[in-house]
Amino acid sequence: MTDLRVIPTAPDDSADGAADTGKRPAPLLRYYGSELRRFREAAGLTQEELGKRINCSKSKVSMVETGRSSPLEATKKDRLNSPFTRQCEEALNTGGALTRILPLLVDVEKAYPDWFRPFPGLESEATEIYSFEPQAVPGLLQTEDYARELLRSYYPPISDAELESQVQARMHRQEALKRKMPPLSWFLLDEAVLRRPVGGAELFAAQLDHLLITGGNRWVQLQIIPFTRGPHALMNGSMVILQLPKDRVLYVEGQGSAHITATEPDVYKATLTFHAACAQALSTEESLQLIAEIRGTLC
């Protein structure tokens, strides 16, 4: 992960915290640590107080929060053994949020870029998804061929094996929309997404057909912001807001980096911005009509 800015290496809140080794902690450990620290502070506990509740040293809590120690106590039989996490879940009433991060700490999922790995786990837990994309069809709505062609455009190029692995991982993420009770999903796209051909006419036509089918799903709201509406509130780039069982998080992706935050002011501002942009978009019916019109020009 190049930069997951939601994971600052927070200073120890005690004077005798473990010494900094000078080595940058692993990003996914910092992600776990930042979530632990957020839940601890929400509970009004110091590191020492949490340590006493879970029969653990203050130093251990500090090391985990700053990404310098793993909560896992891996064994050959159970690589996800983490009594530390179970005790923190009980003490802080996190609703399983820390446990859901544990699989990300084990290097078994190599399909996703390192900086992206925290996101699919959160996405799979979402009950509501609000997504804006200015340039490309969002991953949850891509056809396999579209995804493959898009990944081929990346630079520096990735190997064929890595490309196929990422395509299949992206298709796997879409299983969430096929569940009996899928998340309520609101996709907002700039018209540029529909005007930028990816692959040949046949491939792009199939992608637009897929948008038309998905847009007719009653669990999905699909809106387009047309060029004729001029500038809009989300011209700075893509973002995703996820409603989780106990939290709402904001995901913003940059070039080879990602920013995930559950900080309430940031998420609230992003939510207002999203709905402001929706107010400038076509209705869902008008949006599907525009997609159909562009599709009709292809083949």
What does this 3D model show about the protein?
This protein has twelve helices and six strands. It is of the alpha/beta class and 299 residues long. It folds into two domains: 1-108, lambda repressor-like DNA-binding domains (434 Repressor (Amino-terminal Domain)), CATH 1.10.260; 112-299, 2-Layer Sandwich (Endonuclease, Chain A). A six-stranded mixed beta sheet has the order 3-2-1-4-5-6, sandwiched between helices. The chain is elongated. Mean pLDDT is 85; it is low at 1-25 and 74-78.
Quick structural gist:
Residues 36-71 form the HTH cro/C1-type domain. The protein is an alpha/beta fold and 299 residues long.
Order of strands in the sheet with most strands: 3-2-1-4-5-6
N-to-C SSE series? HHHHHHEHHEHHEEEEHH
Q: Which residues form runs of ≥5 with pLDDT under 50?
A: 1-25, 74-78
Number of helices: 12
Q: CA-to-CA gap between the ends?
A: 41 Å
Integer count of domains: 2
Structural class designation: alpha/beta
- The CATH topology of the largest domain is what? Endonuclease, Chain A
The biggest beta sheet is recorded as: 6 strands, mixed
Mean pLDDT: 85
How many strands appear in the DSSP assignment?
6
Report the CATH C-level class of the largest domain.
Alpha Beta
Question: Looking at the structure, what is the overall shape?
Answer: elongated
* Strand percent estimate: 5-15%
Q: How much helix, percentage-wise, in residues?
A: 40-55%
- Using the CA coordinates, give the radius of gyration: 21 Å
Q: Can you name the CATH architecture of the largest domain? A: 2-Layer Sandwich
